[in-house]
Amino acid sequence: MQLSFFPVIFLLWWAAAATAAPVDALDGFLSRVKTLAADFEQEVIDEHGNVSQRSEGRFYLARPGRFRWEYRKPYRQWVIADGSKVWFYDPDLEQVTVRPLDEALGSAPALLLSGQVRLQERFRVAGQGSEGGRAWVELRPKSKNDVFRRLRVELQRDVLQAMELADNFGQLTRIRFHRLEINPRLDPELFRFSPPPGVDVFEGT
Questions:
Q1: Most exposed among 46, 77, 139, 155, judged by the fewest C-beta atoms under 10 Å?
Q2: What is the DSSP string of 60-105?
């Protein structure tokens, strides 16, 4: 009986270590990031598994609390956080919606990276394994009021590669990053926004 005890303990330790490693990789990446810049491709997949939307653009981040999603194709749209508010600007519709930063749940991937969210307080964090230098981490919100049910992060050699957001309506959003730069020097003006003249501004919560 005692001889089988040690393999069991080893297997339990190995499983715990394998789970912790991807989480540590995500924590390590976030701890060393002050700024980020990357190109991105985004797909939205409906509840039937069909791709309903494809877009691409440029992403910028400056911690804490500032980010900019700049959608360029197929339509222009900007999502800009200045540290306290998030501005959703549609140049073609000439409309802006502004929300408090901590209530902008639609920007959950950027909020995760922004340093405004403490992972262990907001999410249940679990490693999903690693293979060939890649690691996956799943985050599930503790609050039932969040509009998404899980967020999956992929890293390669401890560097962010992709994020996948599943909402409560069966929709899946996948974002893959390219040419990612860690800690580049960024112009502070990227994270400031003033509505252009004649644009309709809507306050949202």
A1: 46
A2: EEETTTEEEEEEEESS-EEEEEESSEEEEEETTTTEEEEEEGGG-G
Is there a contact between 72 and 114 (Cβ–Cβ < 8 Å)?
no
Query: Chain-wide mean pLDDT for the chain?
Result: 81
| Cis previous bond, 91, omega within 30 | no
**Cβ–Cβ under 8 Å, residues 107 and 164:** no
Give the whole-angstrom CA distance, residue 181 versus residue 171: 29
Per-residue pLDDT tens over the stretch 156-170: 888 899 999 888 888
Q: Residue 199: which H helix or E strand, with range?
A: none
Q: What is the pLDDT of residues 80-117, one digit of tens each?
A: 999 888 899 999 999 999 988 776 654 567 667 777 66
pLDDT of residue 130: 67
Structural domains for the chain: 2-203 (2.50.20.10)
Closest CA to 182 of 19, 11, 31: 31
For the segment 123-151, what is each residue's pLDDT rounded down to a tens digit?
788 876 767 788 888 888 887 777 778 88
CB 51 within 8 A of CB 41: no
